[in-house]
Amino acid sequence: MAIAHTQIDEWLRASSEHQRLEFKEAKTSFLTEKLNQYCVALANEGGGHLLLGVSDRPPREVTGTSAFPNPVKVEERLFQKIGFRVDVEEVPHPDGRVLVFHVPARPRGTAYDLDGRYLMRSGSSLVAMSEDRLRAIFAEGEPDWLERHSKTNLTTAQVAELLDLEAYFELIGLPYSGESEPNVERLVAERLVDRESGLYAIRRIGALLLARDLGDFPDVQRKAVRTIVYPGNSKLETQLDQTEKRGYALGFQDVVGFVMEQLPREVIENGLRRTGTLVPEIAVRELVANALIHQDFSISGTSVLVEIYRDRVEISNPGEPIVPIERFIDGYRSRNERLANLMRRMGICEERSSGVDRVIHAVELGGLPPPAFSAGYRRTLVRIFGRKPFAEMSREERIQACYQHCALRWVEDERMTNQSLRKRFQLAAGRTNAISQIIKMTIDAELIKPDKSVGGSKKYARYLPFWA
């Protein structure tokens, strides 16, 4: 298993501590309890490597470590405490001794615990695994919720009556046959419908996408998109409450259209009254699509929810995010990849990881406050606000806008500058000092960092997101 010091150098060049790597400086020591915890957390996340003797903040460098001078003994102690083997290796790097812990992945359908705690990493911290994550792990090996049958023992005519076959062919750009059987067979090939003993069974994913009426499928009807309109800025009074009855592929455009129709249409800008919507349509479209794709279907009795207030729109979905909130702009990991792929092919959403990028871009063009992403109990929420002058934005809004702009520039292979951020806030050229203050606050919040490749010149200063 011996690795060369060049492998250490390659790991140092990783853009950030990702799912497979964890760096700790540990120059003289490292707590045994912490070691146990990190090994369990890494195993629960699919295995990886813990490196001692490496600085844990970019730019990373080998600092050397004298912790755990006897790797054989630490291997034995680890096994006795955590119950699985972790190989420990000393690597004589030119800049100092590095200790590498090779952590295996947990067995499928199993999560490791330490003194009753199922651990995972969250940024630089260790936390208990969420209920959603544990449930997903323990359900591994069982049929996916989406792939189970919703209705069985159906004839060709019954399938055609329950699912809108013509709409499916139109959405994917294929010719529609006048006969039901070849059309249904196409859904069999797509694994939306199964053939069973001369009859057919509709999978839940097929029903969710193509049902003429989700009410015909009792086990999936609670997953229909619900839109609630409030006349004010609170939930005290409800103006409208509507649930889309059709499957996602059939009803998506109508959901977006209904939301846009309900948005306040008067916006005050520079003292002039102009007609427009509270938030841009592309933002609504992308956020609703994201919520559909990333929802946790194993959570029963709840669905994607769009709530419209006088000053904002909130879009939420069941399930806590599986990508850190601060990485929504550049990261992508779908909880339901097959559903995402089908929705992309049907033109409901765009390419991977482009949705939030498009939202941020549209928000910046409109001069809106930054979207607020948050994770609650078994739910992920995005709030997008109507136009607000720079002077009325809070300190936190300005910091988040700066970070999101910096991350978006990185994704677009550009770099944030004082000038680009000033344009994002739609401020005059004379407001560079105000922008410099926001940049400093965002650096202090450890969300962005200076781009050292351009040197220390303030005139040509550029900035990167903290994970770049």
Strand and helix map with partners:
Layout: H1 5-12, E1 21-24, H2 32-44, E2 48-52, H3 71-82, E3 87-93, E4 96-103, E5 119-122, E6 125-128, H4 131-138, E7 149-154, H5 156-162, H6 165-172, H7 180-189, E8 193-196, E9 199-203, H8 204-210, E10 226-229, E11 240-243, H9 248-262, E12 266-269, E13 272-275, H10 281-294, E14 305-308, E15 312-318, H11 337-345, H12 355-365, E16 372-376, E17 379-385, H13 395-411, H14 418-424, H15 432-444, E18 448-450, E19 463-465
Parallel strand pairs: 1-2, 10-14
Antiparallel strand pairs: 2-4, 3-4, 5-6, 7-9, 8-9, 10-11, 12-13, 14-15, 15-17, 16-17, 18-19
Helix pairs in contact: 9-10, 10-12, 12-13, 13-15, 14-15
**Main sheet attributes: strand count, strand direction, barrel closure:** 6 strands, mixed
| Order of strands across the main sheet | 11-10-14-15-17-16
Helix content: 25-40%
Shape: globular
Helix/strand structural class:
alpha+beta
Unreliable sequence segments: none
Helix run count? 15
Gyration radius, in Å:
26 Å
Number of DSSP E strands: 19
The N- to C-terminal Cα distance equals 30 Å
Mean pLDDT: 90
The share of residues in extended strands comes to 15-25%
Would you mind describing this structure in some detail?
With 468 residues, the protein is of the alpha+beta class. It is 34% helix and 20% strand. The strands form six sheets. The protein has a six-stranded mixed beta sheet, with helices on one face. Strands 1-2-4-3 form a four-stranded mixed beta sheet, sandwiched between helices. Helix 2 links the parallel strand 1 and strand 2. Helix 12 packs across helix 13 and helix 13 packs across helix 15.
